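An example makes the point: we print one protein in full, the chain in one-letter code, the fold tokenised, without further comment:
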Amino acid sequence: MTSPSTEVPILESCIPLPLDEARLLEVVEKAKDWAIMHGAAMRSKADFNPDALQFAPFILTPSSFPRKEFEKAVALQTTLNELMHSVAHDEEFLRDTLKYTIKVDEFTGSLFEIYETVLKEGISQPCSLALLRSDYLANFLESNAIKQVEINTIASSFGGISTFMTPMHSYILKELGQMNKLVNLPENRALSGLCDAMVEAWKIQDRPKAVILFVIEDVTYNICDQRFHEFYIRETYPFVQVIRRTLTQIFNGGKLGPDGELLIDGQEVTVIYFRAGYEPGHYYGPNEWSARLLMERSKAIKCPSIQYHLAGTKKVQQALAKPGILKRFIADDHKIDTIKEIFTGLYPLDKNEEGDEAVRRALENPERYVLKPQREGGGNNVYGEDIPGALEKMADDERSAWILMERIFPPLSQGYMVRPGGKMPPEIVNLVSELGIFGAIIGTKDNVVYNKQVGHMLRTKLSSANEGGVAAGLGALDSPYLID
């Protein structure tokens, strides 16, 4: 992840490195146990066992992040919530933006079919709940100003586990005799913030016996992150029940009641929280797609609704970066300026003059760009020298399923990455951190009743790795250490 021509700066570390080996071994063992015993853990993909957990990969001490840019991202989130809410409720914009993509990207096309079906029938639940996560990298080419990598509108994960990373790092810093550093760890209430919004949506329906439905994968590796939401809701709101079902189970056990209410195995559902359904592999065939349509037809409040899911596509992100487009959604010029500041260059690859120009850019300077498809979940992008080959293999009409994004060149930090089964003692490595800011918004097209920034997460990866998904096995959980 280095710039083609500029030496990459290294941010000042939270603590002096390296640590004495004996001290390092001791504190790593304590940190692993802390992580397991407090639920900063996952099920193993390599050796799956539903009865066993291993700690989630983590960075031993918190990674440095520019304070001013962290505070900028936090302050901006409610404006981004407002933007995405307006985008999701603009039928003409979604239709026009995705018109080529849905012809060549089968998954996005299937989502759009559901959208058109419920539009034609009349959307039975005009209120949406969105739990969003806007992801950023600092760009050292622009004095470490944050640039948006993407905004997630479905299954925005790690609010649960990330909430425990700050107390874990506080413990580790105390063990290392660095208590004076704790003041630079920002408080993180992502778990409570996300869950409180779900319950707020549940209250709107005023159906005291109804439940919240979590839509889940057949096998859940990131189990702690999901269960913490469920446990928090039950503990804080004991009268609210959460049930978990896969798309297949929803097809088998779901139906609409006489007033359009969603019934799952006889229980009424008033809020649906998707932690699955964001990638083609979750839909084995017509049954799972039927389950998605059933939910969209229901009066339950969806997180996200189908239009919010479509609003999170990369093609929409690229369209929003076009000159003048933000004015369609945001009236306040100051808000528009603050949003434009975080955008990096985003270009369409459609088969037209604009798309041909983007291809020319990518072929001339591939190291300056990233190719992105309409997918969530990590591991799908094409970087640098691999871009020309990927473009050459694409048929002209296939290009509309992708966008071209200017690459962001983040500063490095240094630290110890601790992974299950990893080398002991760990070595100091060069790292890159991606900040995620969580937001929650509830409302109809014309009336927003709830809009908050609700927490953050930090994912950190080796500087040599392009992708950084923790669930995908490429990154590690972290928390920001704010520096001036």
User: Anything to note?
Assistant: The chain is about 35% helix and 25% strand. The mean pLDDT is 94. The radius of gyration is 22 Å. The longest helix spans residues 67-88.
